[in-house]
């Protein structure tokens, strides 16, 4: 289906693997577009309840392919036509999205990881705000997500200095859900993804939506959004099942609706 992305569904999890390992999974136009399509497919597929984005080989993604910089477009247009739609597809996704950062995530590769809901890092993984080393500005949502995740001061420091951020440092800054030892990587990422896929994923979608809008809402608007979301969550089969299972003292079986 795709050439630069592997797309597999297992146990209600869509596994989306960036597949240009010889270039450390650097972005080309084709990869931007195929990744966007893969996210769109998984977002729409009723059999999918969680997405995992990861990289083939030793890297997660090294950002824009520096050997494939388009000559015919200015960089603003490259972002508008290729990167921004990819980030917006992630932003629109109502299902939980995990960045399984298996190795280095540099430049727009770091931006991609920041735009996901969870970041699982291999102990060998790292982040690099590589933009500054080539005289560019962090893009693809990097400067939107980073201060929201770790605060303005640390975001500025990382973006300006562009130093390698080890998995341990990323965990210390609060950028990471979990750092995973190499030998447990596949097992732990799979377990985490399948755990999310078995949760009340419609409620997760509502949590994502209201958390995002909280940045631009007054308290009054936020309270109204709580009421609207809770109305919808209260109508789901998963809510009924959760209460029933509690009363029957058993584990609930959620369907994501
Ligand atoms: O609109 C626009 O087009 C602008 C948009 C910009 C968005 C951006 O993402 S800008 C930032 C672009 N990315 C970078 O500047 C990162 C460049 N890469 C690196 O800094 C390092 O490669 C890494 C820190 C990612 C990894 O370092 P290391 O030592 O583990 O690996 P390496 O030896 O540097 O790289 C291995 C190979 O991958 C090497 O090729 P070779 O020598 O084996 O043939 C290297 O050239 C290649 N490679 C790595 N990153 C890229 C790349 N080739 C093309 N583009 C890359 N981004």
TrEMBL record:
Isomerase in keyword set: yes
Hydrolase listed as a keyword: no
Recorded GO MF terms: isomerase activity
Domain of life the protein comes from: Bacteria
Keywords, alphabetical: Isomerase
A UniProt-annotated Pfam family: ECH_1
Record family assignment: Belongs to the enoyl-CoA hydratase/isomerase family.
Stated name of the protein: 2-(1,2-epoxy-1,2-dihydrophenyl)acetyl-CoA isomerase
Organism from which the protein derives: Cytobacillus depressus
Lineage of producing organism: Bacteria, Bacillati, Bacillota, Bacilli, Bacillales
């Amino acid at each position: 289906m795709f050439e630069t992305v592997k797309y597999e569904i297992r146990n209600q999890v869509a596994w989306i693997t960036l597949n240009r390992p010889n270039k450390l999974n650097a972005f080309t136009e084709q990869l931007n577009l195929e990744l966007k399509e893969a996210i769109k497919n998984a977002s729409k597929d009723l059999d999918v309840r969680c997405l995992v984005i990861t990289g083939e080989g030793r890297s997660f993604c090294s950002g824009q392919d520096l050997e494939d910089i388009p000559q015919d477009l200015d960089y603003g247009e490259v972002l508008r036509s290729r990167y921004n739609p990819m980030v917006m597809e992630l932003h629109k996704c109502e299902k939980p999205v995990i960045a399984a950062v298996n190795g280095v995530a540099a430049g727009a590769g770091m931006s991609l990881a920041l735009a996901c809901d969870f970041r699982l890092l291999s102990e060998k993984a790292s982040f690099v705000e590589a933009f500054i080393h080539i005289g560019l500005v962090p893009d693809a949502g990097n400067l939107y997500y980073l201060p929201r995740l770790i605060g303005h001061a640390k975001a500025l420091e990382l973006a300006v200095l562009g130093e390698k951020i080890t998995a341990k440092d990323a965990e210390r800054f609060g950028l990471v859900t979990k750092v995973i030892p190499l030998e447990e990587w596949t097992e732990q990422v799979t377990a985490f993804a399948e755990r999310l896929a078995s949760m009340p994923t419609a409620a997760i979608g509502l949590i994502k939506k209201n958390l995002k809008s909280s940045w631009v809402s007054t308290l009054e608007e936020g309270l109204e959004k709580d009421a609207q979301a809770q109305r919808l969550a209260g109508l789901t089969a998963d809510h009924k099942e959760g209460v029933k299972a509690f009363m029957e003292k058993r584990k609930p079986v959620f369907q994501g609706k």
